[in-house]
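To close the chapter, one final illustration. This time we ask the reader to focus less on the individual chains and more on the assembly as a whole: which components sit near each other, and how the overall shape emerges from the parts.
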Amino acid sequence: MELALSILLGFMIIGAIFAIHAKDLLSAVIAAGIVGYSLVICFLLLKAPDLAIVQIVVETITLIIMVAVVLDSTREELKINIDRQQILNISLALIFILVLIFFFVQAIETLNPFGQHSLRMASAYVGETAAKTGSANLVTGVLFDFRGYDTLGEATILFTAAIGILSILRIKGKK
Amino acid sequence: MQGMSLIVKKVAQLMAGLIFIYGIYIIVHGHLTPGGGFAGGALIAGSYILAILAYGSDTIKLKKEETGTSLTESISILFALMMAVAGFFIGTKVFFNNYLPAGKIGELVSAGVIPLYNIFIGIEVAAALLTIFLALIIYKEEIEG
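The assembled structure is written out below.
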């Protein structure tokens, strides 16, 4: 399974790099879609079908909207000249990336191997969710019972996003 | 906004209903099989988006639709909140209390209030995604027209 995951991750990296360097913005959007759809297969390989369903649907909808936007506006990339200010910005970004990688490596070394958790709550969730909530799907049982606040927050985020877009994208009453 | 070619229209006509029913299946079986409110709601919104993109519509109809979807999402999130608050008054006094009987594991009507939350969250997600999509389309139409 690790071999398949590595191949998929390499594929995703190639797609992301191509998306940055593509001349045509439409092919860049489609190359960014490679990343999302490979992620779906990664989730399935890691035995997370709940996430995979959400990811494939949301990826499709966002890809459709992005393609519509690109077809409607411009397909050419804007040319930006690099001056001294931007060289400073880029070097600062590189320094931060190196620092972050250093600390990430240190943090990952202290983690447990994949699938072997050390939290008491994790074993309690796996063992007792079905008996306590009566839900055969443990993910839904945890999401809507033990972690109800999380779900309420996510729904509120979507609600707020829709309200925000409705209030920004109006033409009458703006002047 | 005009529609697409005849082939796209025919395929959308065949597929949109199937996608809609699959979304309802994912929501209703959220406590039994993988999926749940979020995935099913996104699927239902996807079926509407497919139909709108394939067939096209005029701005007045889309505006009527937008009013309906934004009302639907507000009402469904209000219902989810009211069900969570109802946990304060029934049984153990806890927010998000599962006050209905759990039933037999693996049956369609089981797990107390979890299927009801699934349904309301599914309606909320579908209506919210559709509202965002309709707002983008209507903005574009009004800018051009």
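Residues 6-144 of chain B form one domain. Chain B touches chain A through 56 residues (CB under 8 Å). With these observations in hand, you are ready for the problems at the end of the chapter.
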